[in-house]
Recover the amino acids of this structure.
DNA sequence: CTCCATCGTTTACATGCGTAATCGATTACA
DNA sequence: TGTAATCGATTACGCATGTAAACGATGGAG
């Protein structure tokens, strides 16, 4: 296979919040992103612009011109990001094994009935 | 219930590596920790001492005097740390639901046969 | 009792991150 | 056509982090 996504550096937590709104809908202007993300974090427009610029530098976003302004779109897929981050955690905390993670969540009562049902279904599918 | 463990601030990634060796065996001196952790990360003794000091400040470690030096022991349990970190990730990336995490790991082929078998066993236990 | 090795503590410094103001360019409107 | 609003870019700044050297105290060996 060719090059992996080649997503430059790591995406920080604040940057991730910005990515989320662009994964939800893209392309969007800085102003739009600011409004969207404002629902959760209370950031000023300059702050959001800084994060957007950093994400462009990190090659996580592309820009397309629209008159005076830019429209931003994700370059990396959410599933890639989520996959990388999940793997990182599993590697760091559970020696790369997913089962202990599961045990941990179970012990911490972090598994709802729905979760359990869904995981059961997933397992059944995996075995086929 | 009384106070939660009250573990002060967040433990960074480098600090976590130090915690791991102390969870493995405690108490240990700075020199010992340095040797242990040296297997994975190539840190100088001063570096390890800095991390130990920061962890004491963060109330993640306690010290007990042993002649000239200190012996360090974890204050917070590994399961607590691991639980908090797991929950953080699940909240941040999967809206607090564990099932999508498993779907993700499954899709990324991060689940070994052993994992699947173990999770299956755990599920059976949960349902009883 | 003296001196050296070894502690923990203090200080250091580059980088990344969170948060934001300012500035120069540009566009749209009057 | 001039000017006000707005855009992206540049600069800023404090705190956390990763990494480490320097320093001062102290305990053990001779």
């Amino acid at each position: 296979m060719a090059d992996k996504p080649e997503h430059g550096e790591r995406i920080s937590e604040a940057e991730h919040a910005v990515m989320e709104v662009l994964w939800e809908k893209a392309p969007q202007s800085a102003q739009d992103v600011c409004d969207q993300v404002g629902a959760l974090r209370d950031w000023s427009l300059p702050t959001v612009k800084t994060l957007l610029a950093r994400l462009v530098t990190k090659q996580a976003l592309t820009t397309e011109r629209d008159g005076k302004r830019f429209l931003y779109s994700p370059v990396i897929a959410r599933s890639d990001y989520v996959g990388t981050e999940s793997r990182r955690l599993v590697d760091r905390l559970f020696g790369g094994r997913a089962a202990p993670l599961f045990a941990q969540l179970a012990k911490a009562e972090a598994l709802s009935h729905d979760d359990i049902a869904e995981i059961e279904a997933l397992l059944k599918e995996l075995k086929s």
